[in-house]
Amino acid sequence: MQEQDTIAAVATPPGAGGVGIVRLSGPQAGAIARRMFAPLSPRFTAFRPYQLHHGRIVDARGETLDEGLAVFMPGPHSFTGEDVAELQCHGGPFIMQAVLDAALALGARLAERGEFSRRALLNGRMDLTQAEAVAELIAAPSREAVRYGLAKLDGLLGRRVRDLRQSLEHLRMQVCVAVDFPEEDVECLAPEAFLAGVEEVRQGVDLLLAGYSRARVFRQGAQVVLAGSVNVGKSSLMNALLGRERALVADIPGTTRDFLEEVLLLDGLPVRLVDTAGLRDTDEAVERMGVRRSRERVACADVVVLVVDGATGPDDAAREVLSRQDGVPVLVVWNKVDLARPEAPVPRWAAGAAAFVTASARTGEGVEEVAHALRSVALRGQEGQEGEVLAPNARQAAALEKAREELCALRDDIRSGQSYDICAVRLDAAAALLGEAVGLDSPQALLDRIFSTFCIGK
Is 141 a residue whose pLDDT tops 50? Predict the structure, then answer.
């Protein structure tokens, strides 16, 4: 990337819209914008920074492309830290392409994916967590995901990780100057104080990783699999939760042969609801394939909704799901409560489930309670916890998890009386991994990989 270039791109989403924006950044941004702007006000003499000006947008020959607004934002007080100009026109695809082509003809080059955010990072306008937050905000599927993104955009996560890294660097200085200057009579940090400092940082990392787990379902959506025997009402319950007829419903056993997947929001929580084939032994080849896929979906679910026929009670399929939880929470829905009710608020056979709810998919009774219980189980009761806005993304969490492993190994080394020069290696490794999480000294390949996922114009 040639940082002295002036780059340009359409900054608004593809397609037609009321307003479209062409953004420029670089040393020639202001000059190109001035050549493309013909003011409609006779009092206009030059761009006043950070103010919108009304006029015609023209090409290099002075031909009018559109009527719109222009704004100039000189660096370093701009998004990228460079001179930035924006031309705001009507959002038709042809108009936007014509304005962009005119900017390119006047000396700008087409921006690469994420290059505006990347320049902001390289110019010190934001750290890597803030740059990634830009993409996360654009792709946020829920209100909570937006909240997590805004907290990162504000730099909260980056500051917390840098604070933890600074604590490790302070320990590194304290741990023993004698490691580097063994001939000097220098008092080392006591093992008890060393261990306490490491544990404090580890606990801070644990808090951030817990935030990742909480935020993941808001960012990606919780995969919820409806499981159970044939004809227990899985498809009917799916339709009831969606509020429309999505799945075919019939009295014939085995109607659902393959899984169906739909997305719904439960009070801001995105849920990928999956209806599966009924679990049973069958000689029919296609249905047998469907049953195999059902078991596969159950195994990789975030939550399993076990639907039980209230008229017959739990069967072999219900016992199979309850006995093979493998850490996946199970919400038991006693369906057809209009025909029969359970013998207890939570029957003994369902004692291991995360929650037990009665409902009737046919009449609608209890469906709202199913939705509330499903949201609660998916969030594992972690709503409203302190620090929940500190939510790393998958890349950041991977670096933090490796840092945590180094800190745990360091803790064991200190307890076993390992020499401080070996402990210092662990300290350096953990500090480097924390730095990787926030982009300190990030290699070029990592930045290329991250910004390649951004849209052009951001």
Answer: yes
